[in-house]
């Protein structure tokens, strides 16, 4: 499936340069991250979809990704695996897109909280799996998951207060403008919505709730959400 068929301004790269292999949009949180980063940055790419939760899912993934994991970015005859690695590759190739903050300290903190999301919060992943279409208020809110959720709320509040609100361009995201850090946390925003997590009860002063709204209103996210709903409708 070919999408974003234009040319990346100033780079000479087109959708033929990048093929992003992703899973179902309702469930694949790792796929959402680089897809969202590339969409918001206006980096053209082709999408290839692999159906998850099927008997042949692993076989289909291995046709595209030697690691056996998706998302995977096909570029120059090779495969870049892992969401954060794909996002970092885009930041390297398109520095003018601002996928990391320009300020050195803000950039360091953006990388830090992105890495924390990448390697941590296993309890949230396990107990509140991403399900964009459905709503399960109160479910999945184990003690361990809520402890991890409290830390996430602290990150959102802290980054918004220290960097986002003070940014020359404050679009409501963690560091003002949209960055990889927001791509990394976007699936968690959907999880909190799906399971009805009370962020105020986890210490939010309003900043985390406002941040969630900024992510959920993002045109690229709304596109992903609409396609997730269409996928699930097709499944019946």
In brief:
With 236 residues, this protein is an alpha+beta fold. Helix content is 50%, strand content 7%.
Descriptive report:
With 236 residues, this protein is of the alpha+beta class. It has 2 domains: 1-99, Glutaredoxin, CATH 3.40.30.10; 100-220, Glutathione S-transferase Yfyf (Class Pi), Chain A, domain 2 (Up-down Bundle). It contains 9 helices and 4 strands. It has helices at residues 29-41, 57-62, 83-93, 104-119, 122-127, 143-164, 180-194, 207-217, 219-235, and strands at 18-22, 46-49, 72-75, 78-81. Strands 2-1-3-4 form a 4-stranded mixed sheet. Helix 1 (29-41) links the parallel strand 1 and strand 2 (46-49). The longest helix is centred in the middle third of the chain and has 22 residues, at 143-164. It is globular and about 45 Å long. The two termini are 22 Å apart.
